Amino acid sequence: MMKNFNEPIIAILIGAGNRGMTAYARYAELHPDELDFIAVAEPVEIRREKFADLHNIDPKLCFITWEDLLAEGKIADIAVICTQDQLHVEPTLEALEKGYDVLLEKPMAHTLNGCVKLVKKAEEKNQILGICHVLRYAPFFDKLYRLINDGLIGEIVNISHRENLGWWHMAHSYVRGNWRNVEESSPMILAKCCHDLDILYWIVGSSPRKISSMGNLMNFKKKNAPKGAPKYCVEGCPIQDTCLYYAPRTYIDIEPILQMIDKSEKSFFKFIANLRRNHLKILSFLSKIIPFLKQVRYWKEWPVEPLYHGHKEDYSDEAKFELLKTSKYGRCVYQCDNDVVDHQIVNIEFENGVTASLTMQGFSENEGRSVRVDGTKGTLTGIFQLSGEKIDFYDHFTGQKETLYNQPMNLTAHGGGDLRIVEEFLKSVKNRKTKPLTSSRESLESHLMAFAAEKSRLNELVIDMNDFRNKLGL
Ligand SMILES: NC(=O)c1ccc[n+]([C@@H]2O[C@H](COP(=O)([O-])OP(=O)(O)OC[C@H]3O[C@@H](n4cnc5c(N)ncnc54)[C@H](O)[C@@H]3O)[C@@H](O)[C@H]2O)c1
Question: Which of 2, 10, 88, 324 could form a disulfide with 330 if both were Cys (CB 3.0 to 4.6 A apart)?
């Protein structure tokens, strides 16, 4: 049945972590007339209570696990599922079974079979299953897609796409953090780049025919640990003053954030970064009067936020230092239990003849994506970074260059894509049609590409995607 456009969509949240709490539920804070969370499942008490407070949730509808929440039956229109990679399939199957439309974090599942099961279940139940490939909804990629579809560069021939992870992001998420280990999460090409593969598939408008991939873990290994380095950085590391990855630099001095701010073109941001780095006493004083400066002085957003998983929210330098003595984020990057790659390349030939390459690497000076699309009549180049976004067009006939999109520093996550995907999902739920959202069947493509790439990398094979699909019964 079509939902009345004037009533908010009623939602439940499973997993009130970083993504659930801040990326998607934020939409309800900004647009309470469109989205209302009435229940939450989250085992970490502090997070559960914080979420309940933010959304005014009845304590009777606050649950420790997704099983307990879904055992209540269908009590809302939609379920937003933001648990970790390996806990996507079961709650989603159950929520679809109960009749919820589901907005599920990417990757949809950490196994191929899990992905296929989810798509089939959504189709069998005729429920909407949206996968959070938020990049598609970022204005930058939307613009790129439209320019190409409008024929600006003629026929696309080749795409070269890079996911350049900042050196700190690599260390935080894929060496020390939640996505460091395949057994515990998923292959990095899936976890990090199913987004990028989705963008390639979308822009090319054709299914992949052949895939090959190479990559390995080169830097973050025990053999590269500095002599005498303790397991935790704050235990008196002999190279703490010169190590790029010394944990207090990242989590207390927020060096990565300052480097990002430094790269912005806005002098005000640069001024703030300088204040934080070189005039801490002045900043501490001013932050007592100006709330915005307090946020900069006692940074609590990513990458600091995951450090507080279940801990009291004290963001002083001393409290952070204490946490780093035992937190996984305090570990020496050369002595973790990580096994995911730190660089990987993927080559793709699509059914329509277009070729594309994707580079994912974790040693970038700046965090973000860059893309180059060459067509029969022109070339588009794009950069999509926190410090700014830009698309340039090169016309082969005139030889002229034109900047078609230019956005300064954008600190809203994924260039605005996080909130726009919620907006599109809500529209789909109200219309009872998958569009404007991407269908889960369409999102499956990028996951197939990621699993095929991983198979290629591990077995040194070129993967024929038709064989790959046939074996899955697709
Ligand atoms: N779309 C994107 O761009 C993007 C970006 C980052 C992460 N992700 C994905 O989002 C997902 C969540 O990532 P995150 O950083 O928010 O992780 P997180 O660890 O901060 O959040 C997951 C939450 O799930 C909770 N949880 C664990 N067991 C549960 C259970 N039985 N029932 C209910 N909740 C339970 C955890 O306590 C935690 O708070 C991951 O799959 C990740 O790969 C997507």
Answer: 324
Instruction: Give the DSSP H/E element, type plus range, for residue 385.
Output: strand 378-385
Q: DSSP state, 232?
A: B
CA Rg, the chain, in Å?
23
How many contiguous H segments (helices) and E segments (strands) does the chain have?
Answer: 18, 15
428 in Cβ contact with 129 (< 8 Å): no
- Report phi then psi at 192, rounded to 5: -90, -40
Same domain as 210, residue 112: no
CA distances to 151, 278, 365, 388 from 266, in Å: 34, 18, 18, 10
pLDDT digits (tens, 9 = 90+) for 247-265: 999 999 999 999 988 887 7
Same domain for 37 and 55: yes
Ligand 1 pocket, mutate which of 84, 193, 437 (most atoms under 8 A from CB): 84
Number of domains in the chain: 2
Between the alpha carbon of residue 174 and those of residues 177, 214, 328, 346, 443, the distances in Å are 6, 18, 12, 19, 23
Tens-place pLDDT, residues 267-298 = 888 898 999 999 999 999 999 999 889 999 99
Identify the residue whose C-alpha is closest to ligand 1 atom 10. 105
Residues 118 and 195 in one domain: no
Q: Are residues 149 and 57 in the same domain?
A: no
Regarding whether 79 and 182 lie in a shared domain, the answer is: no
Whether residue 202 sits in one domain with residue 345: yes
Task: List, for residues 444-462, the tens digit of each pLDDT value.
Answer: 999 999 999 999 999 999 9
CB-based contacts of 11, cutoff 8 Å, min separation 6: 28, 35, 36, 37, 38, 76, 77, 78, 79, 80
Residue nearest to atom 7 of ligand 1 (CA): 19
Would you place residue 411 in the very low, low, confident or very high pLDDT band (cuts 50, 70, 90)?
low
48: domain CATH number is 3.40.50.720
Instruction: Specify the amino acid at residue 289.
Output: I
15 lines ligand 1 (CB under 6 A): yes
pTM of the model: 0.94
Distance from the alpha carbon of residue 296 to the mean position of ligand 1, in angstroms: 25
